[in-house]
Amino acid sequence: MLLCERVVAPTELLEAILLCMDMRTLLTAAQRVCRRWHHLIEASPSLQKALFFEPDNAVIPTNPLRNPLLAEVFTVWFDYDASTTLGANGRNHHYYRNFKASPFAKNLDLVLYKNSSWKRMLVQQPAVVYLGDWRHTYGETGHDEKFLVHDSFPHGLRMESLYFLTFERMKAGEFASVRMLWDFKRHLRLSRSRAPGTTPAPTAQLSGCKLTPDVVMESSVGVGWSGGDSMMADFMCERSSP
């Protein structure tokens, strides 16, 4: 056997070539070439990380990479601007109408198919293990807020989990809103810099948490508002949908 053949086996060479493909081609066209390619993509840890199916701890935590395919289809979850204001009055809150107008709502086959690959995709690399849940509630008694940290996602936060956590909040009604704070620590720093001597609202509640999550889902709902269940569209399907 030649030295080059011992150093780079054919499978390893093919894996290296596949890693040079763009994510969409690797996920779709490459797997349909032949069974060998399909099995290699399914079995290769490196290729599974490239497709956001497995956590990649090699990605620097301070420079996370959000899933580009999910960001393209599930736009409202990834429409992110760290410079926006913290709190319920901040910009980039998305309402029911925003979700309904998103590309994913116009492609129901993608959402309803129970084996859709997006459901098991990680939302970012390195994987999100802890997700903050910052809830603003409005009612006759005024404004109340809670900051929770969801149970850890030991294998990373997948889009399916984020999808259904979001719509649990959206069911409150047409004027419920949700936005993702993908770099929550940066939001806190910016908030402090804008208002010297003041403390961002959730800081006191964060003090009771063992850690500050980097990613937070912020929601705003009104107690007593109705219409949520009756207006749920097909894209807000239950987990058991075929």
Q: Care to describe what's here?
A:
With about 240 residues, the chain is α+β, with helices and mostly antiparallel strands. It folds into 2 domains: about 1-50, no CATH class; about 55-235, no CATH class. About 35% of the residues lie in helices and about 15% in strands. It is built from 12 helices and 7 strands. It has helices at about 5, 10-20, 25, 35-45, 45-50, 70-75, 75-80, 95-100, 110, 160-170, 185-195, 205, and strands at about 65, 95, 125, 130-140, 140-150, 175-180, 215-220. The strands form 2 sheets. A 5-stranded mixed sheet has the order 2-6-7-4-5. A two-stranded antiparallel sheet has the order 1-3. Strand 4 and strand 5 (about 140-150) form a beta hairpin. The model is unreliable at about 1-5, about 225-235 and about 240 (pLDDT under 50). Pfam families: F-box-like. This is F-box domain-containing protein. It comes from Apiospora phragmitis. InterPro entries: F-box-like_dom_sf (IPR036047), F-box_dom (IPR001810).
